[in-house]
Amino acid sequence: MENDKYTINGSTSGDSKAEFAIDESGKVQRGNWGGKFEFILTCVGYAVGLGNVWRFPYLCYKNGGGAFLIPYVIMLVFVGLPLFFMELAFGQFASLGPITIWRVSPIFKGLGFAMVIVSALIGLYYNVIIAYCLFYFFSSMTLTLPWVTCDNEWNTPSCVVYSSNQNGNVSNLTDYMTTTERQMTTNITAIPSGEPANKTYSPSEEYFNNYVLGLTSGMDEPGGLKWQLTLCLLLAWCIVFFVLIRGIKSLGKVVYFTAIFPYILLTVLLVRGATLPGSLEGIKYYVTPNWERLSDSSVWSDAAVQIFYSLSACSGGLIAMASFNKFNNNCLRDALLVPFINCGTSIYSGFVIFSVLGFMAHERGVDVKDVATGGPGLTFVVYPEGLAKMPAAPMWAILFFFMMITLGFSSQFSIMETVISSIMDEFSDVLRAKKLNGYLFRIAVCFVFFLLGIPMTLKSGLYLLNIVDTYVGGFPLLFVGLFECIAINWVYGYGRFAEDISMMLGSKPNIYWKVTWCGISPFIMLGTIVFKAWQYEDVTLGSYHYPGWALALGWLICLFPIVIIPGWIGVRLIFYGGLSGLQKSIKPRKDWGPANPENRTGRYSKPDENMPPAYGGGHVNYAMDSERF
Fold this sequence. Notes:
Elements: E1 5-6, H1 14-19, E2 21-22, E3 28-29, H2 36-47, H3 50-54, H4 56-62, H5 69-94, H6 109-139, H7 203-212, H8 227-244, H9 248-258, H10 261-274, H11 279-287, H12 297-310, H13 317-322, H14 331-364, H15 376-388, H16 393-426, H17 428-431, H18 435-453, H19 461-472, H20 475-505, H21 511-535, E4 540-541, E5 544-545, H22 548-575, H23 578-586, H24 607-610
Antiparallel strand pairs: 1-3, 2-3, 4-5
């Protein structure tokens, strides 16, 4: 499909030029998806990530098994679907990234910056997790997996090879685990100082902590660089660069593999797991409903958080990906299809995981609850131990970690394209002026992110990764989602937004979308914020308690994107006309609307004369028509 070419408001100057590159005919040009399927696969890859495999199955088991699906589906209906459709429609209508799109109400442009900052922080440490997967992938290419025995140089006298002869003496792998509330990197496993002297560890635990990480006693002891992890991190960023070198043109082709192939591997692993002794018992633990758990408010909170994050909403990615759609693409269909694929994948992954956990419990002679856990503790400790007990173990380990790599990259590609394309949209008078400029910028971004990720490959890196993960994945996205609903449906107005959607799809959203966007969804997000604040406890990593300066660092990370939102309002209040300028900047700018003039119909055909005011009667007095901000 050829790229659409168009001018905005018949002009190529000022902010219009800032959004797109200018060709020799004086018209602006911006990329589009090569087809509808590319966009759907990219959204699936973006939403379906590591958390679908390592977080949801454990949450389902912990929160009542099959009964957990009730609050999960309710939260999907009243939070997940509304946010997903709102962001797809918003981005597709204006064909702008998450920063520039706030010409709809310039006072809320801080929301766009907050989204991109959160995506950048997530992309920074998410690639470190992928580096872990790469490390295990290469380590699995051997005749005997290195985490099978206790006679390696990294093992300690506390190492124990568990077997079914040790009934009643097997230590619970979840005793020192912690669970965060971010779907992509939760539940980090470590053996920090302060553990009981008589505690025993499996070979897979000691391999991960002592060899892969070389974990120190805390953040106060940085330790040296784990050069193997650093090289894996460099490889991960090189892969990200080469996949995104041409933006969505190259990304749209790669997702055919990264979004589809994990399902093949999941099915292969499910078939293998189902044939193992004890697998049925593991699946029973996964799906058997415990209806009493539904009376626990934390179960509903877990469901809300899981739905919110599993769809990757409110971090700018959905707006950015949708901005490359054709104007009349059926984004409502996509908004219904992708979330259900995502949730179905989570449920499907649970059968894959718990079939192997049932096998592990059978081999040890213990209950499934004694081996069940979530997060990287599952990926790098528990599941590898189960793989090691299978015939042809290296082959299954290679397949499993390759699946995790593809799942990780399918999300990471979209996360980083969101960051890169958003900045390029905002400053495209320079970054989109020539192809070389775009290539150099992409190289620079990947290289800088690699350098910023190096501290997480130190021997104390896991402590830093856990801090960033915990504080960036909670309150920031909830606040962004809340203010996004307010800005679009209360300030810009649901009526105008519904008319915009009607221009694309031919009809306005029905009452369900109005009720959820204007009331139910923001109310649930506000309630989740209050509930999380009430439940807050200082982050820990197993038995390790972070020093005060580390917790302060975490809160700085958490507050940075949140403070950007009111901070931007304050900047406009101080420098752009005080309260009168603030009132003006609430209203849409005159260049707000469809990017292609062919689609600028109705009130957008002559914006200076016909566009209705945001508040009250009369004509709109636009703020900063010719300024970048």
